[in-house]
Amino acid sequence: MKLNVKNETAQLKVVVLGRAELNGAIPTLEETFDAKSYETVFNNDFPIEEDLVDEMTEFESVLKKYDVEVLRPSLIENVNQVFSRDVGFVIDDEFFVSNIIPDRAEEGKAYDQIKEKFKGNKITYLDENIYVEGGDVILYNDYIFVGTYNQPDFKNYKTGRTNIQFVNYIKEKFPNKKVLNFDLKKHDTNPYEGILHLDCTFQPVGKDKAIIYKDGFLFEKDFQTLVDIFGKDNLFEVTKEEMYWMTPNVFSIAEDIVVTEKNFTRLNDHLQNVWGMTVETINYRNISKMGGLLRCSTMPLIRK
Ligand SMILES: NC(=[NH2+])NCCC[C@H](N)C(=O)O
């Protein structure tokens, strides 16, 4: 298998999809590490395994319908393995193993068998001072967009996952790409006020379009940079409420095929009727209660 990912939307061939069986006990408030999970636990609304498994099975069958090969991480009991995205990511033909938040360190082992499958490809482990999670890395051909929090209180936030050291590293590693980083608003307990990863506030779809939540960016000039790159008419701006439900976090199977959540009616209508895409809608609301959605639960290995 030859790894290849250069953007978010080229035709998908092979993907890892997380898993929801034996995810472990409901976390306590202190054990949560993102604002949405904090709120879910606070409201005594943590999703049950059966519903999570059903939602991921529905996602898997849509992927298979389009002939995508779907791999699953091996099962580690009592570890939440839903969000494959963050553990590692492919840029071009190289796999990067993330340095994720220590609370999630155990998840990495579950990818050993998958790494075995793509042995022979470049696999890179990052220095220990470089923090990154795949949700903060978004590829757009010659561009690499990185969600960061480059502020003095970085260490105070459990939701600050990617640092400027990663940006510097990736600039040096890919001198021919345009690497742009965007500081995101952070809040560990209020999901309306903070953005966990870049893919919770922005994501390209189609050939030259994107979904975006303006107020997720710490600096308005960063939002403007993206307006300049994509053009105003090619952006679908979501509201605060839509951001809260993780509307930017859809997942593309191809430039014209997007998997989204059933409840995203305004977005789905736009994708289908204004941008002419095929929209596959599934139930994924229980997954969202743990702070991620469709993109977060996948790790693409090969796009055409
Ligand atoms: N790519 C993403 N946005 N992933 C969401 C991960 C959510 C998970 N609860 C965490 O805090 O790490």
TrEMBL record:
Superkingdom field: Bacteria
The protein's enzyme class: hydrolase
GO biological process: L-arginine deiminase pathway
Catalytic function, reaction form: L-arginine + H2O = L-citrulline + NH4(+)
Cited Pfam families: DDAH_eukar (PF19420)
GO molecular function terms listed in the Swiss-Prot or TrEMBL record: arginine deiminase activity
Pathway: Amino-acid degradation; L-arginine degradation via ADI pathway; carbamoyl phosphate from L-arginine: step 1/2
Enzyme Commission number: 3.5.3.6
Protein name per UniProt: arginine deiminase
Species whose genome carries this gene: Faecalibacter macacae
